[in-house]
Specification:
Structural class: mainly alpha
InterPro entries: TPR-like_helical_dom_sf
Helix content: over 70%
Shape: globular
Protein name: XRE family transcriptional regulator
Strand content: under 5%
Order of helices and strands: HHHHHHHHHHHHHH
Length: 270
C-alpha cells in the first residue's frame, strides 16, 4: 500500500495551486513519509530510513504546520537514537519542544499530545544513556501533559495518551536497570487497553525484559507469547525479544520444548 500512498501524496502536492491547499498537501505527504518510516525501519537498508525521515521533515516544514513538524521530529529523533546518536536525538527533540512551547496555551489537544510524545521520547533517550535524573524529569513532564489531555484522547502515530504513561514508565525503568519498578508498573497496565497492536506487543516485550533481569523465565515466556499473539511481526523483528529467547535457550532445562516453540514463532529456528 505504501508506494500508492506516496504517489497519491506527491500528486496532491503537484496539483495544489492555492498556497493553503499546497500546505495541506505537504502535511499529508509528511504524514505518509512518517508512516513509511514505521516500515523501512525494519528493512536491511538504513539509507531507506534516513531518506524517509529526511523527506518527512522537509515536507513538514513546507507545510508550515507545527503539529506535523513535531511528528516528523519524533521520527527523526528515533532514527538518531537507533543509530546510537544520542546527542543528535535529544537535539532534534529539544528543537521541536521549543517550537511547540509558545503554542500550547492556545493550542489544540493534538499539539499537546505531540508535546507529551516528545517529552516521553526525550525521557527514553536519557534513560538509554543512563541519565536517571533527566529521564525521570522528562517522564514527569510527559505525565503532566497526559493529565491535561481531554478524556479518551489518543495520538495514533505515537500512541501517546493518559493510559500510556505507565507503559512509558516500564520502558524508562527497564532502561535504567530498575527491573523491580518496571515490573511493578507493568502489572498496573492492561495490555488490551493499548489500541495499537504493535505498541501493545512492544509493551509486553518491555515487561518481559524486566522479568528477564530477575531471571523469572516462566513469566518472560508467557509475556513473549502474549506479545506474539498481539502482533507477530513486532516480536519477530524485536532485537530484545530475540536476545531473551536466545539466552533462555542456552540456560534451559525443563522449559526447552516451550522455548523451542517460542523461538520458532520469533523466527530463530525452523
Amino acid at each position: 500500500m505504501l508506494p500508492g500512498l506516496i504517489r497519491d501524496a506527491q500528486v496532491a502536492v503537484r496539483g495544489a495551486l492555492e498556497p493553503r491547499e499546497r500546505r495541506e498537501a505537504y502535511a499529508l505527504l509528511a504524514e505518509v513519509m512518517n508512516l513509511v518510516t514505521f516500515y523501512v525501519a525494519y528493512q536491511p537498508a538504513a539509507s531507506l530510513l534516513w531518506r524517509a525521515v529526511e523527506r518527512a521533515m522537509a515536507a513538514a516544514y513546507e507545510a508550515e504546520d507545527p503539529r506535523v513538524i513535531a511528528m516528523s521530529a519524533w521520527s527523526l529523533a528515533q532514527a538518531h537514537r537507533d543509530a546510537d546518536e544520542w546527542e543528535q536525538a535529544q537535539e532534534v527533540t529539544d528543537r521541536a519542544l521549543r517550537l511547540l512551547d509558545p503554542l500550547l496555551p492556545e493550542g489544540s489537544p493534538e499539539l499537546l499530545g505531540m508535546w507529551g510524545s516528545l517529552q516521553a521520547d526525550a525521557a527514553y533517550t536519557a534513560a538509554r544513556v543512563g541519565d536517571q535524573g533527566v529521564a525521570l524529569s522528562f517522564l514527569d513532564q510527559a505525565d503532566q501533559a497526559a493529565r491535561r489531555l481531554p478524556a479518551g484522547y489518543y495520538q495514533p502515530m505515537t500512541s501517546f495518551s493518559a493510559g500510556i504513561m505507565r507503559v512509558h514508565a516500564v520502558t524508562i525503568h527497564v532502561e535504567l536497570r530498575q527491573a523491580g519498578e518496571a515490573a511493578r508498573q507493568g502489572t498496573a497496565v492492561d495490555p488490551a487497553a493499548i489500541p495499537s497492536r504493535p505498541r501493545r506487543a512492544r509493551h509486553l516485550i518491555e515487561v518481559a525484559r524486566a522479568y528477564h533481569e530477575r531471571r523469572e523465565h516462566e513469566a518472560v515466556m508467557t509475556l513473549l507469547d502474549q506479545a506474539y499473539d498481539a502482533a507477530p511481526e513486532t516480536i519477530q523483528f524485536n532485537g530484545y525479544a530475540r536476545q531473551m529467547v536466545g539466552e533462555m535457550m542456552n540456560a534451559a532445562g525443563r522449559t526447552r520444548d516451550r522455548l523451542h516453540g517460542l523461538a520458532k514463532k520469533v523466527g530463530m529456528v525452523s
